[in-house]
Design brief:
Strand content: 25-35%
CATH class: Alpha Beta
Number of strands: 9
CATH architecture: Alpha-Beta Complex
Strand order of the largest sheet: 2-3-4-7-8
CATH superfamily: Peptide deformylase
Order of helices and strands: EHEEHHEEEEEHHHE
Helix content: 25-40%
Distance between the termini: 19 Å
Shape: globular
CATH topology: Peptide Deformylase
Bound molecules: zinc ion
Length: 195
């Protein structure tokens, strides 16, 4: 089931999410989040973006890998082929010194896209949808997608990485997005919707 995606301006996008336990793994929510992600043609989605304040996010970078030509793959993926995975209670335990800038966008902030500097690779400890523990290192665009979604579960948005003066300049655009004065190709919940 496709869920509406909460727009910029919703307080839940600024809230630190609660951890899950084996007893509280929301199987139906995870299934709905995949539907919502693919319905919006996205590559990552975090639970607070659909109104659930829990430490859960999904990433599919395989889709992008399959769409890219070999030259682009060499830049964005280097030696990996991407992942499709569920991340629960994630903790980033290491960041590479190597950093890179690449364009990012967010399903909660439609119509905007900015270059953001991030570490090239990260090590992350997390549980999967069966609550099995993992510790893995990811790089390139996959690490970028993971960091973007991980930050959502801590109330951080990618725009927070922009310089202050840039953030000031786009404040009007963000205000319009929060009030629904924006076009998106997928269902959204705006701050002025009655719910
Ligand atoms: Zn996002």
């Amino acid at each position: 089931m496709v869920l509406p995606i909460y727009s910029y301006g919703h307080e839940i996008l600024r809230t630190v999410c609660e951890p899950l336990t084996p007893e509280t793994i929301p199987a139906a929510l995870i299934s709905d989040m995949w539907d919502t992600l693919y319905g919006a043609a996205g590559c990552g989605l975090a639970a607070p973006q659909v109104g659930e304040s829990v430490q859960l996010f999904l990433v599919d970078s395989k889709l992008l890998y399959n769409q890219m030509n070999p030259e682009s793959r060499a830049v964005y993926f280097e030696d990996n082929i991407g992942i499709k995975a569920v991340f629960i209670n994630a903790v980033i335990t290491a960041y590479s010194e190597r950093r890179w800038v690449s364009e990012e966008a967010c399903l909660s902030i439609p119509g905007l896209q900015y270059g953001i500097e991030r570490p090239w690779s990260i090590t992350i400890e997390y549980r999967d949808e069966y609550f099995q523990p993992h510790k893995r290192t990811f790089s390139g665009i996959t690490a970028r997608m993971i960091l973007h979604e991980f930050e959502h579960t801590n109330g951080v948005l990618y725009l927070d990485h922009l310089p202050q003066r840039k953030q000031k300049r786009i404040a009007g655009k963000l205000d319009r997005i929060s009030r629904g004065r924006v076009k998106a190709d997928y269902p959204m919940s705006f701050t002025n919707d009655s719910r």
